[in-house]
Amino acid sequence: MTQEALFAGFGGQGVLSMGQILAYAGMIEGKEVCWMPSYGPEMRGGTANCITIVSDSSISSPIISMYDTVVALNQPSVDKFESRVKKGGNLIYDSANILNPPTRTDINIIPVQGSEEAIKLQNTKVLNMVMLGAFLKKTNCVAVENIHKALEKVFERYQKLIPLNIKALEVGMSYVK
Amino acid sequence: MGEIKLMKGNEALAEAMIRAGCDAYFGYPITPQSEVLEYLSKDATQRTGMVVLQAESEVAAINMIYGAAGSGRRVMTTSSSPGISLMQEGLSYIASAELPCVLANVVRGGPGLGTIQPSQADYFQAVKGGGHGDYRLIVLAPSSVQEMVDFVRLSFDLAEKYRNPVMILADGAIGQMMEKVELFDQMPRKTEFPDWATTGKPKDKERRYITSLHIQPEKMEEINKHLQAKYKQIEDAEVRYEAFNLEDAEYILTGYGLGARICRKAMDILREKGYKVGLIRPITLFPFPKKVYESVAGKVKGILDVEMNAGQMVEDVKLSVCGKTRVEYYGRMGGMIPSPEEIVENFEKLFIKGEA
Asked: Quick one: which of A25, A176, B81, B239 could link to A150 by a disulfide (CB 3.0–4.6 Å)?
């Protein structure tokens, strides 16, 4: 199985970290992984995104134009990437932060009140983990315990942040039936 | 099995440099390869005692490489397109003086200052000369983060075997993306140096002298003949490439580095559509894998060369097939990357629907 995902939002929302944590978890699980960030002028104050591919077999192109799943954290990302979801794929978006929701009917559209849930958790920085939780539940592309292991790696020096991030993942997962 | 890590291409290259027992790195930061110097600055010197130095410019860096290579040490520099242009004079001197060293060019879009996005527009510069005079670099084109690791060690070996500069020609995407890599174990730094190295003259030894200046044309021609013989030897012994599905192929996609990865996906899509498509990926750009193209020339209906430039390697593909097969080019420029779907569309337009 191969999951070709795109994470997009404003610079600073943690979209690059989301993709990276997923890539770490995939590697821990013994899968092939590739993480390709957008880098360059658009990252300063503008939009940032990264492609993360997790696969059971070797990954050919790290650059793709259609995705199995898009996770969008802001309006420009929904507008730009709605059309890039493969038919039957998933578009997961932060519905607490978006005025014009996606309209396609040939894909699974999953609204998650990400920003609102992050405020409830008293740390707006965990928005990305709420969204990643929904992504994991929907795609089953890596086991949650491997995401936990990846968090231990990423938060090497900040272990005290891990429980909050795990809580945020769980909140996100509850949005997917 | 070696240590497995998730690493960025630039970091993996730097880690491989440390582990390959590199004695000295001289460089100057430039996007998209700045992580190399950043990574080495962390603890490379503490780990192996290697020299890590940020030079005042790329011109200084390449001349420091010239000097350190002359002492027989393992030396390396990295940069991106505009910085590599600044290094061309020094590189010509190093090639003429036959000193081993390794360079990596993490290519960005040009010409000029251009963009910081990935590109392959420095193929001509790397493969056909770049600097002045009849010289060649051995050029390796990695297409994964793993190859950023493997090719560092290979490059040092080739550089020392042939006393020739070796260039790793990557691109911004290979430098910036993260993949799983298997690292080789730490190798010791060299303690013995070759008999040409200028390491200080004791009374009982002959004077050793490294120069690229030979004012007598007869002497300079002899040196040129020697260099050409060496390049011929490299062409005979060091060709590397990867090929997929050549057995039943009616068409061939070809590209190197990141372009080859994108072509692999395009090949899979085209095969699903029922076209018998194969793929040739040159790993060494010099020496160019002419023979594998020769072997399909006249047998396949067409070759589509895909590059992130205006069509540079396509000239070498055409020279290799010598008019026996139709060769077309498709590419993007200035830091844009073709998608697999774009390649499929252009393949069908050129070869199936017959529009030229």
From this structure: A25
CATH class of A2-98+105-173: alpha beta
> Which candidate from A62, A64, A66 shows the least CB-CB separation from B177?
A62
Residue with tokens 């240590």: B3
Q: What is the pLDDT of residues B115-136, one digit of tens each?
A: 999 999 999 999 998 999 999 9
**pLDDT per residue as tens digits for the range A37-78:** 987 665 556 789 999 999 999 999 999 999 999 999 999 999
Mutate to test the interface with A, among B8, B31, B177, B269 (most CBs of A within 10 A): B177
Q: How far is B144 from chain A (nearest CA, A)?
A: 9
> Would the CB atoms of B4 and A23 count as touching at under 8 Å?
no
Give the number of A-B residue pairs with CB atoms closer than 8 Å. Answer: 68
Q: Tell me which fold the domain B3-189+211-237 belongs to.
A: Rossmann fold (3.40.50)
Name the residue among B109, B73, B54 with its Cα closest to residue A41. Answer: B109
The alpha carbon of A146 is separated from its chain's Cα centroid by a whole number of angstroms, namely 15
* Cβ pair B6:A64 closer than 8 A: no
So what's the ipTM on this one?
Answer: 0.93
DSSP helix/strand/coil, A175: coil
Q: What's residue A41's pLDDT?
A: 64
Same fold, B3-189+211-237 and B242-352: yes
Q: Name which of A60, A67, A149, A156 to mutate to probe chain B: the one with the most chain B Cβ atoms within 10 A of its Cβ.
A: A60
Domain boundary assignment for chain B: 3-189+211-237, 242-352
CB proximity list for B315: less than 8 A, separation 6 or greater: none
Fold topology of B242-352: Rossmann fold (3.40.50)
